[in-house]
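User: Can you predict the 3D structure for this chain?
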Amino acid sequence: MLQRYIRSDQDQLEEFMKTMYVSRGYVFDPEGSHSDIRSIELLYFETGGGFWLLKEEQSVIGTIGLKGIDSENRIGEIKRFFVLPEHQDKGYGKSMMSQIIEVARQAGLIKLRLDTEKQSNKAMSVFRSFGFYEIPKYNDNDIAEIFMELSIVS
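Assistant: Here is the predicted structure, written as structure tokens:
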């Protein structure tokens, strides 16, 4: 079940991120390139977005964040979209994305953007299934290789 992040989830979230990044061949760096995980209220909630955890029983098996990046043009950004490898191909990613797109619409956003890596084949499949299309680089993420956008005007 997708649940809105609350501060008491922090330890579970960091343990999930550590597991997720190791599965992708990276080291989780909450003091550096992944420091947003320790500033969720500021970077997600205060920009008009949010952060959600997908839980099975009491374990975090997925995450998705939404943050506002351009209030004038009503653009939001999907961040930290992950499902643990052993829980992929069960529809969780599509369910989370569908819910976040609806949250973004209700928040008055008209476009969503995201960045990802070429190795993220399953995530790319989810993005394309919702109509995300590639755009030029829009941020300073040096690791990202693919930049995408979706118009969500009803």
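The longest strand covers residues 59-70. The chain is about 25% helix and 30% strand.
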